Amino acid sequence: MQRKKSGWMLLTVASILLATGCGRRPYETPIVTNSQQPDKELFDRAVGDIERSRFTIARLTLQTLINTYPDSEFIAKAKLAIADTWFREGGSSNLMQAEAEYRDFITFFPTLPEASEAQMRVAMIHYQEMEKPDRDPTHARRAEQEFQKILLNYPDSPFAPLAEQRLREVQEVLAQGTFEVGRFYFLQGNDIATQARLKELVDRYPNFSQADGALYLLGRSLERSGEKMMAEAIPYYSRIVRNYPLGSRAKDAKERLAALGATVPEPDPAAVVRMTYENALAQQQGLFAKLLGGFGRRPNVLAAQGKLGAPTMTTQGPAQAGAVSPAVQSQQSPTSGASPSQTIFLEPVPDSNTTSTPTNPPPSNP
What we know:
Blueprint: H1 2-19, H2 38-51, H3 55-68, H4 75-89, H5 92-108, H6 114-129, H7 138-153, H8 160-188, H9 191-204, H10 211-223, H11 230-243, H12 250-259, H13 269-281, H14 287-293
Helix pairs in contact: 2-3, 3-4, 4-5, 5-6, 6-7, 7-8, 8-9, 9-10, 10-11, 11-12
């Protein structure tokens, strides 16, 4: 009986593989035409090669189409398909070539619907190359900017919702890296460096899963910086109670406010609703996944799942208004009166702090 069941299972798996083309995802070709011209035949032949992972042959066929039929209706799609071959082939050098091809497509065909698809692929290239928070943040920073471009330049694109979620995940990784550095300096007693890192973090990434922890360390750092600095810790403790009332640091923040003789604010009702929803959808990484994750370079982005707050749309400086909730816009930055912005820089912003950033800050809690 057991042997018969195993046979049926094997047959079922084989049937599924045959029905799905052995797991291959069909290449999408939105251009529909009944033309029987040679350019269409070349394009169809290239599509077949892409589906069979014959990427070099597909590129040669597509390049022949472009050179031979410069006025073909398939020119734009052929250029995009060439980029897709590099993207599907994978590998660092191929992904760099894919990015260059996608950028050329966006430059030459900015008004086509496929331009947003090309921009999404550029963002995903850096998303896939993104490393853990304690490693090189170059790809994470680039991914942040590329996903922001989709939301700003193609807000009605079908890729916009996915780009928004991927942007939350990227910003979670960037915020985690800054938090680890700030915590390292806090444990070392370097309050100037601690405050510089954590002030940037709490103003720029209010949706960070450990934002309340960053606010608390910032307050404690200010408290121990001298009697004149103690009063500056009060707004940060107040933000914990008001904006993160269900977080692990809410009770500690209330105790510090009481010790400083400050008024304990009421929790923001919108923040209570938001955190209740987010906590219900929160996902925890399993033990086996944690063990495997220790050997890989890919970051864990589960903490960004189910977040309601809009991702930050600036590449530097404080987050824009509404990043957490409309009810707390006025409390986004207690130390800065600068008005929020949605300016986006098209080139990567260099990280001026990388030279002084420890590579592997200790994971211990204060």
